[in-house]
Design a protein that fits this description.
The complex is a heterodimer of chains A (about 400) and B (about 375). Chain A has about 400 residues and is α+β, with helices and mostly antiparallel strands. Chain A is built from 14 helices and 12 strands. Chain A has 3 domains: about 140 residues, 3-Layer(aba) Sandwich (MutS, DNA mismatch repair protein, domain I); about 55 residues, Orthogonal Bundle (DNA polymerase, domain 1); about 140 residues, Dna Ligase, domain 1, CATH 3.30.1490.100. With about 375 residues, chain B is α+β, with helices and mostly antiparallel strands. Chain B has 3 domains: about 110 residues, DNA Polymerase III, subunit A, domain 2 (DNA Polymerase III, Chain A, domain 2, Roll), CATH 3.10.150; about 120 residues, DNA Polymerase III, subunit A, domain 2 (DNA Polymerase III, Chain A, domain 2); about 120 residues, DNA Polymerase III, Chain A, domain 2. In chain B, the strands form 4 sheets. Chain B has a 9-stranded antiparallel sheet with strand order 14-11-12-13-26-25-24-18-22. Chain B has an 8-stranded antiparallel sheet with strand order 6-2-3-4-17-16-15-10. In chain B, a hairpin with a 2-residue loop joins β19 and β20. In chain B, α1 runs antiparallel to α2. The longest helix of chain B has 12 residues. The radius of gyration of chain B is 25 Å and the shape is elongated. The model of chain B has no long low-confidence stretch (mean pLDDT about 95). Classes of the chains: A alpha+beta (about 400), B alpha+beta (about 375). Chains A and B meet through β11 and α13 of A and loops of B.
C-alpha cells in the first residue's frame, strides 16, 4: 500500500500520565484521575486527566481549581515525572527497533518514519499495529496511531479514534480523508484563523481547498499559501530524528510563593543540572542563557546573556543564572516561578575548544557524563549534587 | 551653592563623570553626579559602586555647597549650551543653570545620600608613564571575557614588580599578553585584576604623554592623571594560570602582511556563519596563505595572499571575529604566526617588536568543519 510513497506514522499515548497512575494503582482504575498536583486548591494546572474525567469537561492546561469544581469526586495526584520519563524511554526504544527515524515530540508522542521498512518488517500498516501491541504488552499502556504519506495527516489520523485507535490513510486517499474534517484540525489553525475562516463560510478542510490559492493568499498572505498547501495534503516536512531544538529549558513553579534564598538557590541548582543533562543528552551546547523569573503577584522578568563558553555543564549554567538572578531587583517580592533555558545551540562537537580545557572543565565534564550514565540506569536524579539533597524538591 | 565656570570645562567634566554613571540602576542616587563646591574649588563625582570618578575643575565659587544632579540630563544640557560662562545655583533642592540667555531649572537629590567615594589614603602609590599604560590596556582589552560565570576573567590581570609591567586578558579562547620592561618605584609586587569597565574609562582619560599616579590595595586601585582620579574595585582572583597555556614549541612560522590579512579576513568573514562559530580556514602552503569560508546554506569565499612559510602544508580554523581583533591590535606591518598542530593554540605576534616590549596573542583554533 505504501510501496512507492512515504510511510509516516504518528503515535500518541492515551492519557499517558493518568494511564500510568491507573496501571500502577489499581484503585484508581475506572475513576476520573487528574494529574497535576495532590492539592487541587493549590495553584497549578492539569497536565493530564484520565478518560473517565473527560466527560466532566476537564482537559489539560486547565487550572486545578476549575477541574475540582467540574468534578469534585476526581482523584488528584501529584504525578511522578521520573516514572513517566522511564516509561517514555521504554516506548521510544521500542519505536527505534523499527526505524532509526524516530522524532519524539514529547514524552508521550512521536513521529516514526516507516518508509522502506517493508522488506524487514512487512507492510507499514501491519508493522504499526505490531508496534502498538508491543507497547501494550511491554508497558501495559495503550496508544493511538495514525499512518499516512504526509506527516501532518498522520498526526490528525492518530487523534481521530482515540483512545486505542489506529487510522490508516493510504497514499491516494489523503484528500478523501482530509476534506470532510473540520478545518480546525489543521496544524496552526487556532481560534483566530478559525474565526476568520468561519466568516468566509469555511467549515471543513474541503471548503478551504475550494477557496483556492488566490483568495487565501489575498486574505492571509504567506500563511494563506501555507493553508492552501495543507488543504491539499501537501507538507514537505520529513521525520527528523533529532528535532532541531532551538533552546533547552526547564522551569519550576513553586507551590507557594518563595522568599527563602535557600529554596531559590536549590531550585536554580536543580534547574541548571536538568538543563545541562538535557543538553548533553541531545549532544548540544549553547552560548545564551535565559533566566525567567516571576515575582508575586504577576510580574515576569526574563534576562538573557551570552557568554564566551558553550554551556552544557550544570555548574557553569548555575553560575550564569545566579549572576542574572542577582541582577534582578526583586524588592523583597516573593518568587513564584523560576525558569532556566539555554539557546544558540550548536552540536557539542562543533563547540570551540578552550585554552584552559585541560584544567577545571574536563573534570566537570567527566562528572556530568558519569551523572548522566547513572541517571540512565537508575532514573534521572539518581545522583545529585550535595546541595540538592535535602527536602525532596520534586 | 553658587559657582561659575566655563562651558567647555563644565561640559568636559560632566561628560567624563557621566561615563561612569550606570545606565540602569536600582539605586536612584547612582544616576546622579555629585557637584561639590568648597574653598579649594569645585569637584565632580560619579560612581556605580564598582568604578568611581572624581575630578576637580576650575571655577569661581561664590557660595560653597553640594548638589546631586541627574547625570544624563545635566550633561546633555551643558553640552548644548553656548560656549561662554555658566552659573550654577542651588536653591531649595533645585539647580538653576544660567548661561547667556538660557535658563534651566532641574530637580535634584539630596547630596547626603551620595555614596562616599573610596579613600586614597594608606594605599601604596607609584608613578608610571600614562601613555605606556594606555597603550598596554588598548592592546589587551579586547580579549577580556564578558562571561558572567567567570568573573575572574572579566578584567585585565595586571602584574607589576618594579622591573617589568605585565597585562594579560583572556576569555578562555584567546589571550592577549603585553609585557614591558619598566623601572617603577613600587613598595612591593602586585598581581591584581582590574575590571573591564574601569579600563574603558582609563582609555578615555589617560593622555598619551606625561605621568600618572597609580595606587593599589588588596581590593581597590586608583589611577590619577592631572585633576582626574578613577577608583576601581578589583576583581577577586585567582586569575587563570595563563603561563601554563602559553605554548613553548610552536615551530611552524608564517609571516604575512598584517593589513592584507586583516582586509582579506574581513571580506571573507561576511560569509562566515554563527553556526560554525564564524569559522575561517587558513590554509598554509609554501609561500602562500589561502583563506576559505564555507558556510552551509550561505555560500563560500576564497582568497589567496603571499606569505612567508616553509613548513608542511596545513589547515587551521579560527573564529574570524577573534582573528580580526588580534590583527587590529597588532601595530606592526608584518605579523608572525607560530603554530604547532591545527588543534593547538597558536601564537600571533608582531614582527617589529617595540623596544623593551613583548606582545603576543594566543588563539585557540576551531575544529575544522569540513
Amino acid at each position: 500500500m505504501f510501496d512507492h510513497s512515504p510511510a509516516l506514522a504518528h503515535l500518541d499515548m492515551d492519557a499517558f500520565y493518568a494511564a500510568v497512575e491507573q496501571r500502577d494503582f489499581p484503585e484508581l482504575r475506572g475513576k476520573p484521575v487528574v494529574v497535576g498536583g495532590p492539592d487541587p486548591k493549590a495553584r497549578g494546572v492539569v497536565s493530564t486527566c484520565s478518560y473517565e474525567a473527560r466527560p466532566f469537561g476537564i482537559h489539560s492546561a486547565m487550572p486545578l481549581r476549575q477541574a475540582l469544581q467540574l468534578c469534585p469526586d476526581a482523584v488528584f495526584v501529584a504525578g511522578r515525572m521520573k516514572v513517566y520519563q522511564r516509561e517514555s524511554r521504554r516506548i521510544m526504544a521500542i519505536l527505534r527497533e523499527y526505524s532509526p527515524r524516530v522524532q519524539p515530540l514529547s514524552l508521550d508522542e512521536a513521529f516514526l518514519d516507516l518508509t522502506g521498512t517493508q522488506r524487514l518488517f512487512g507492510p507499514p500498516d501491519e508493522t504499526l499495529q505490531q508496534i502498538r501491541e508491543r507497547v501494550r504488552e511491554e508497558t501495559g499502556l495503550t496508544c493511538s496511531a495514525g499512518l499516512a504519506p504526509v506527516k501532518f495527516v498522520a498526526k490528525i489520523a492518530s487523534d481521530l479514534e482515540k483512545p486505542d485507535g489506529l487510522v490508516i490513510v493510504p497514499p491516494g486517499g489523503v484528500l478523501e480523508f482530509l476534506h470532510p474534517l473540520p478545518v480546525g484540525r489543521l496544524w496552526g489553525v487556532g481560534p483566530k484563523t478559525l474565526d476568520r475562516l468561519t466568516e468566509l463560510g469555511v467549515a471543513t478542510i474541503g471548503d478551504l481547498a475550494a477557496l483556492g490559492l488566490e483568495e487565501l493568499e489575498r486574505r492571509f498572505g504567506l500563511w494563506g499559501r501555507r493553508l492552501h498547501q495543507l488543504s491539499l495534503g501537501r507538507d514537505g516536512r520529513s521525520v527528523t530524528p533529532h528535532r532541531e531544538e532551538k533552546s533547552v529549558g526547564h522551569e519550576t513553579t513553586f507551590a507557594t510563593d518563595q522568599e527563602s534564598e535557600e529554596v531559590i538557590t536549590r531550585a536554580l541548582l536543580e534547574l541548571s543540572e536538568k538543563v545541562a543533562a538535557r543538553l548533553r543528552r541531545h549532544a548540544v551546547a549553547g552560548r545564551t542563557l535565559t533566566l525567567k523569573l516571576r515575582l508575586a503577584p504577576f510580574s515576569t522578568f526574563t534576562r538573557s546573556v551570552s557568554g564566551d563558553e558553550y554551556l552544557d555543564q550544570g555548574p557553569l549554567i548555575y553560575e550564569t543564572a545566579r549572576a542574572l538572578i542577582d541582577r534582578v531587583d526583586r524588592r523583597a517580592r516573593k518568587v513564584r516561578l523560576i525558569g532556566v533555558s539555554v539557546s544558540g545551540l550548536v552540536a557539542r562537537e562543533a563547540a570551540p575548544p578552550g585554552l584552559f580545557d585541560s584544567e577545571r572543565p574536563e573534570r566537570e565534564q567527566r562528572l556530568g557524563k558519569a551523572v548522566d550514565a547513572l541517571g540512565e540506569r537508575f532514573g534521572a536524579g539518581a545522583v545529585r549534587r550535595g546541595r540538592l539533597i535535602g527536602r525532596d524538591s520534586s | 551653592m553658587k559657582i561659575t565656570l566655563s562651558q567647555p570645562e563644565l561640559s568636559r567634566a560632566a561628560g567624563l563623570a557621566g561615563n561612569v554613571v550606570p545606565s540602569k540602576s536600582t539605586l536612584p542616587i547612582l544616576s546622579t553626579l555629585l557637584i561639590r563646591a568648597d574653598k579649594e574649588g569645585v569637584a565632580f563625582s560619579a560612581t556605580d559602586l564598582d568604578v568611581s570618578i572624581h575630578l576637580r575643575v576650575e571655577a569661581a565659587v561664590e557660595k560653597t555647597g553640594a548638589v546631586a544632579v541627574p547625570a544624563r540630563r545635566f550633561a546633555e544640557i551643558v553640552r548644548k549650551l553656548d560656549s561662554v560662562d555658566v552659573t550654577l545655583t542651588v536653591e531649595d533642592q533645585t539647580l538653576l543653570i544660567e548661561c547667556g540667555r538660557s535658563r534651566f531649572q532641574i530637580s535634584t537629590m539630596d547630596p547626603a545620600d551620595f555614596p562616599k567615594l573610596p579613600d586614597t589614603k594608606g594605599l601604596d602609590t607609584f608613578t608610571a608613564a600614562a601613555g605606556t599604560i594606555r597603550g598596554m590596556v588598548r592592546r589587551t582589552r579586547y580579549a577580556i571575557s564578558q562571561d558572567l560565570a567567570r568573573p575572574s576573567m572579566n578584567g585585565i590581570f595586571l602584574e607589576i614588580d618594579g622591573e617589568k609591567t605585565t597585562m594579560v586578558a583572556t576569555d578562555g579562547h584567546r589571550l592577549a599578553y603585553c609585557q614591558r620592561e619598566e623601572k617603577l618605584d613600587v613598595a612591593s609586587s602586585y598581581g591584581v585584576i582590574v575590571p573591564g569597565k574601569a579600563l574603558d574609562q582609563l582609555l578615555r582619560l589617560l593622555p598619551d604623554e606625561g605621568d600618572m599616579e597609580i595606587g593599589i590595595s588588596e581590593s581597590q586601585a586608583f589611577f590619577r592623571t592631572g585633576a582626574v582620579t578613577l577608583f576601581s574595585r578589583l576583581i577577586e582572583g585567582p586569575f587563570p594560570n595563563y603561563k601554563q597555556v602559553i605554548p613553548q614549541g610552536n615551530e611552524k612560522e608564517m609571516t604575512v602582511a598584517t593589513d592584507s590579512l586583516l582586509m582579506a579576513t574581513d571580506r571573507v568573514s561576511t560569509l562566515a556563519s554563527t553556526l560554525n562559530t564564524r569559522q575561517v580556514k587558513l590554509v598554509l602552503e609554501p609561500d602562500q596563505l589561502v583563506l576559505e569560508v564555507a558556510s552551509p546554506d550561505i555560500g563560500k569565499a576564497h582568497e589567496e595572499m603571499e606569505a612567508a612559510y616553509g613548513g608542511e602544508p596545513m589547515a587551521i580554523g579560527y573564529n574570524a571575529v577573534y582573528l580580526l581583533d588580534v590583527l587590529k591590535n597588532m601595530d606592526s606591518d608584518q605579523v608572525r604566526f607560530r603554530l604547532d598542530r591545527p588543534d593547538n593554540a597558536g601564537i600571533i605576534e608582531p614582527v617589529e617588536e617595540r623596544a623593551g616590549e613583548r606582545y603576543f596573542c594566543l588563539l585557540m583554533p576551531l575544529k575544522l568543519s569540513d
